[in-house]
Write a structure and sequence with these properties.
Helix content of chain A is about 55%, strand content about 0%. Chain A has about 200 residues and is mostly helical. In chain B, helix 2 runs parallel beside helix 9 and helix 2 packs parallel to helix 13. The chains are: A mainly alpha (about 200), B alpha/beta (about 600).
Amino acid sequence: MTGRALTRRTVLRTLGAGAAATAFMPWLSDEGLAAFAHIQAAKAPPRPRVLSVPQYATVEALVEAIIPADERSPGAREARVADYVDLLLSEAEDAVKQEWLDGLTALDVDATRRFGAPFVRLDPGQLDALLADLSRSERTAQKSPLEAFFAMTKQATVQGYYTSEIGIHKELRYKGNQLLAEFTGCQTQDGKDCPYCGQKAEGR
Amino acid sequence: MAADPTLDLDLAAVTDESRRLASSIKPGSGPWDVIIVGSGAAGGMAAYQLATAGVKVLMLEAGRMLDYPKEYRTMEWPYQSMRRSRLPPDHRPIAVAEYSFLDRPYGNNPVFDKYRKITSYAGNSFTRNWVVNEKEHPTTGTPYSWVRARVLGGKTNFWGRGALRYGPLQFKAASRDGYDVDWPIAYEDVAPYYDKVDVLLGCSGTKEGLVQVPDGVFQRPTKLNCVEVAFQRAIAKMGRHYIPGRAGVTTEGVLNKYRARCLGRGRCGRGCDISAAFHSPTALVFPARDTGHLSVRPYSVVSEVILDGTTGRAAGVRVIDANTREVMEFKARVVVLGAGTLDTTRILLNSKSSRHPEGLGNSSGRLGCHLSEHAMGPRGSGFIPVRIGTEPTLDDGRPITPYVPRFRNVTDRHPDFIRGYHFQGGGGCYEYPGLAHDLPGYGKAFKSSVRKYYPAMISLGGFGEVLPRRENRVMLDSEVKDAWGIPVLRFDYRFGDNELKMAKDMADTVEEMLAAAGAESIKVERELLPPGWSIHEIGTARMGDDPKQSVTDKFCRLHDVDNVYLADASPFVSGGTQNTTWSILAMCWRTMDHLKEQLRSGEL
C-alpha cells in the first residue's frame, strides 16, 4: 500500500477555500449529534469539552450574532449551537482545532484593537461593523485567517441551528415527517387554484 | 459527557439468529435444487420465483440477517436523544474529493489509519451497519466509488426507489446510432415482466406515453409541489416533460403481509419501517422463506463456483464463513449469481480451472469488460419566484422527487454526443435548508433570508448513460486480497469523450430550464462526480447471441456452462438513463422463468 500521504487538509486546500469552509469538521459522529441533542433537550448547563468558560461565552455571542433570536423564533444561543461547536471541536483533528481556536483568539484581538473591548462586550453597532467586515469576503476564495474563521463558524452555526428542535420546528416550521393519508402537493395538481403559490389551475 | 445509553443499536438478536442459521445450515443439510448467491433485488427475486414454484433453494448472503423493524429508522429527528445508532469518531465515509485524490485501496491509505471503519460515500448513521468496510473490501486501479452492502437485502435497504423501465431506445440503441451492439432481446420480451414486477411489488407513477421511459402498471402517483409545478409549466413550453417520479413503493397496498401502503413520511432512504418502499427482505425473501422451500444462510462469502470434473457443469460454490473462516462447498443442480454486477463478475473471474483458465464463462475474454453506469455531477438549483417569501408547506411527504425524462436523441440527433441523460430532483421545504450554506451575511437579515428562500428552492441532478466500452473493465488484482483472502477487483474505468460532452450539455440544459422557470440565484455545478457514484453498475458479463462476443445467452445463462445463471445487472448490454433496480427485478423474473422451464423439462 504505497500511498501519497495526502492529508485531508491538502485535499481541502486543493478544492479551494470555499469548499474547505463548508467542510469545516463535517465528521461530527452520531454520538456527538446525540450528545448535542441531549444538551438541547435537557437544557443542561454547558459543560464544554474543549472551550474554556470565556471562550464558550465568546462562541455563544458569535453564533447568536450569526443567527439571532427574532420575532419568529429563538436564535442560536437558545438552540445551544455553542455546545455543537464545542462538540465539533472535540472530534476535530488537532491542527483544525488549533486553527479554529487561533481564529477565536484573533477575533478578540480584532475587537479589542478596533473598539477597545473583547468580542462579548461589543455593543450592537460595533458587532455589526465587525461582522460586516468579516463577512465581506465570504464568497471569494481569498480570505484572511480571521475571515476564514468566520466562514467556518457560520457554516457550523447553520448546521447546528437548523438541525435543532428550535431550528426545524420554530424557525422553519417544517411540516414533513408525519403520517399522511395522501401527499397533497400543489393544489393545482387537483385542478384548483393554489393558495400557497398563487398558481392557477391548468386551463383557466 | 455521559454517553446516551440508547445510542447503540442492539443487534444481538439478529446476530444470534445469523450465527444460528450459519451453523445449522451445512453442506450436508440439503439437498437443494438451486443455490442463489446474494439477497438483494436479484437474489431476492430469484428466490421468490423459485421457492414459490416449489424449487428447493439455498440463498447465500455474505452479511448477516436483518432486524428490519429495528434497523429501518424512518422517522428519527436529527435532534432526537433516543438515537439508536451512532457513527463513532473512528468511522467515516470517504469524501467526494478523496475518491480522485487518494491512492487505492482507499481504506488502506495512511490518511485513514486512525479510523477503524472506512465506508463508501453512502455510509451514514442509517446505513453504517450495512455498508462494507473498505479496509476489509479494498479495490485497486482507477478511482471508483463502489458502494456495497453486506446484509440481507443488500443495497435495496436504502436504495433511491427510482423504478424506471428500459424501453426500445435502450434495447435497440445500437440500431439507432450505430454504436456497439443491440441487446439480443427487445423491449417486448421484457415488458410483460416489468408489468408483473409492478403488480407484485407496487410502483407509483403516471401514464405519460413516452417512448423514452415506457409506462407501467401504476399505483397512485406522487404529486408535484408548488415550485415543481412552476418548473413543469415552464419547461413544457420547451417541449420537455417533468413528471411525477416513478417509485418502487406501494401507495395502494400489495398482497404481502410484511408490507403496508405508503404513509407519506418521505424518509425512505433510511429504510421504510412499514416496507411500503420495496426492500428485498420484506418484499421477496421473507415471503419466499414462508413457502418452506428457501433456506437462507448468512455470513456466507462465496469465493468461486466449483465444477463437476466429469460433466463440466457447475457443481456448486465454495463458501468462506465470514465468522468462523471455515471453508465449505455447497452443491446444487444450478447456481444463480446475484451478488451485484461487480461481485458476481469477481466470483466468475475467480472461478479458475484448467478448463476455464481465465475464469468461468470467460472463453470470450469479455468477462469484466463493458462496465457501464450513469455519469452524475452536473446539476442546477435556484429559487422559484412563486414561493419566495411564502410560509412553508408540507412538500416532501412522498417517496420520490419528480423527474425530467431524457429529451436528447429521442427524436432529434444531437451533434455532439449519442445517447442521453435525464434529471431527477425537486424542491420545496425539506427538513434541512441546505440553501442556508450558500446565502451570504449574518444576523436577522441572514436568518430571514433563509426562511424567505426556504420554500422556493429547486434542485435537479443529471444521470447520463456511460457508453459501454470494452476497455472500461474490471479484472482480478494479482496481489491485493480482501479480508477473506479473495483477490479484489482492479478497476480500469474512465469517462470518455461522449460522457464529457454529455455532461457539458447537462449543465447547459439544466441552467436553461431553470432560467425558463424564472429561477433566481441559479447555481450550476458542471463537474462530474467520481465514477461509480450512481451505484447503477451494469454490463461486465454482457449477454449476446454470439459466444465469442458475449458472456451469457439471452436468458442470462453462461454460454460456457449451462447451469450457471446471472440474476443481477451484469448481463445488461446498455443502461440508458434509467435507474437499474426495476430492470434487475424484471430481467431476473424472466431469467427464472427460463430456469424453471429447464428444471421442469429435465434439461437441468
